[in-house]
Amino acid sequence: MKNSPAMDSVYKSLYQKYETSNSQEELKELGVLFKSLDDSKEAKKYALLCFKKAEECRKSEIYNKAIEFCKMNTVGSYNKAISELYSIHPYKDTGKLIKDCDRRIYKLKMKHNNEMLEREAQLSKKKVNPFSDTAKIIIIGIVLVIISIIALNIWYALPY
Predict the structure, then answer these.
(1) In degrees, to the nearest 5, what angle opens at C-alpha 27 toward C-alphas 22 and 33?
(2) Is the separation of the CB atoms in 108 and 75 below 8 Å?
(3) How far apart are CA 117 and CA 113, in angstroms?
(4) How many alpha carbons lie under 13 Å from residue 30 in its C-beta half-sphere?
(5) Secondary structure in 3-state letters for 110-130
(6) Whole-number Å distance between alpha carbons of 120 and 123
(7) CA Rg, the chain, in Å?
(8) Which is the most buried residue in 36, 62, 139, 145, by most CB within 10 A?
(9) Residue 4 phi, psi dihedral angles, 5° rounding
(10) What are the tens digits of pLDDT across the range 88-147?
């Protein structure tokens, strides 16, 4: 590391933190600390390692959030997942996941459309008959009253 034992101790301590850290913010801070130690190639190398690992953590968080959106299995959540995945593409298998989300959105929309068509078909089968049972009974009653009136008129019109 450095010639000075104190500087070696600082490098060693910061590097141990780098190895154990999975926090994007902490890694960025470590990168800044390495950069501020001195202007050596070694300090720049460790700073770059910290910044790269911080970026990996950032992408990993976004990737995991997108996976959680996919588990919700809704069109909206798949759209959110796609948006998140595009922001880190070509990280890991984001291209494959984006296509998978698009395919699932298509399937959900097709399923929804089929359900709507089925409901419409069921509703058309259940359309109210203009002559429901109640209407038929009323019509039969009216017809019987008219026949009775006609029969009575004929009865009274007959000569005895």
Answers:
(1) 150
(2) yes
(3) 6
(4) 27
(5) HHHHHHHHHHHHHHHHCCCCC
(6) 5
(7) 40
(8) 62
(9) -75, 130
(10) 999 999 999 999 999 999 999 999 999 999 998 888 777 656 667 788 889 999 999 999
**Cα 94 to Cα 88: distance, rounded to the nearest angstrom:** 8
Residue 86, CB half-sphere, CA atoms under 13 Å: how many?
Answer: 9
pLDDT tens digits for 25-39? 999 999 999 999 888
The residue length of the chain stands at 160
The structure tokens listed for 94 are: 């984001």
Helix axes 75-88, 94-125, angle to 10 degrees: 160
Whether the model clears a pTM of 0.70, i.e. scores above it, the answer is no
The structural domains of the chain, with segments of one domain joined by +, span 5-127, 132-160
* H-only helix segments in the chain: 5-20, 24-37, 41-71, 75-88, 94-125, 133-157
